[in-house]
Amino acid sequence: MLTRTLITARTRLVRVTVELSNQVRGLMKTFGLVVPAGQGSSFEKNVRSLLTEAGELSEIILPLLNAWRGVRERATELGRQLMAVARKSQDCQILMSIPGIGTVTATSFMAAIEDPGNFRKSRSVAAWLGLTTRRYQSGEVDYDGHISRRGDKHLRGLLYEAAVVILTRTYADSGLRTWGLKLKERIGFKRAATALARKLAVTMHAMLKSGELFAPAIGATA
To answer: How is the chain split among helix, strand and coil, in percent rounded to 5?
Structure first.
């Protein structure tokens, strides 16, 4: 419960920082000041630079920017606590051996399922998270249509983001990536990413039950 609370608190603070940064961008754009793309310190630097000669507008925007910085610092602190939790957890270390799975996704997965024994079959985890879709074409799984979107929305989103990372930014040779890329050629990027998110959920649960680290050959078959 403590880990779940920590994840919820950090997630909320991260969302607040996004909301504040979007508000700053929107208000400044109204006055013809377009903040260049960038996050973190780059975002703050760009905003302050544009406000140098903004006069009265800076008196409105700077308090928002200071609030953004304060919330961001608190979110970073909770992120460090989450990393400490992951380092101490053998289960999280197992999950993080998968390319594309980081601290937040691993700890969120563990906090959500609590005990791998709660699910008799690994495939049940994907259904529980709302990642299942209809099947057709001679028994072969295809990913046309919509997922059910039931269960933990936050974790479902994290798994989708992890799938996107595997397809676009992770170049480690693995069966999951190969499988996802082949699927992308057949059905398109978004549906392939959704299918890979589902496969990640099944794979992660199976790894927790076996206690084994990720092997590159995992996920090579549908």
So the answer is: 70, 0, 30
The model's pLDDT over 64-86, given as tens digits with 9 standing for 90+, comes to 999 999 999 999 999 999 999 99
Looking at the fold, whether 95 and 83 belong to one and the same domain comes out as no
**What is d(CA 119, CA 209) in angstroms, rounded to the nearest whole number?**
10
Answer whether residue 74 is part of any domain: yes
Q: Is residue 191 part of a domain?
A: yes
217 is a domain residue: no
Q: What is the pTM of this model?
A: 0.78
Helices (H), 31-55: 40-50
* 190 pLDDT higher than 60: yes
Q: 42 CB contacts (<8 Å, ≥6 apart)? A: none
Q: How many domains does the chain have?
A: 2
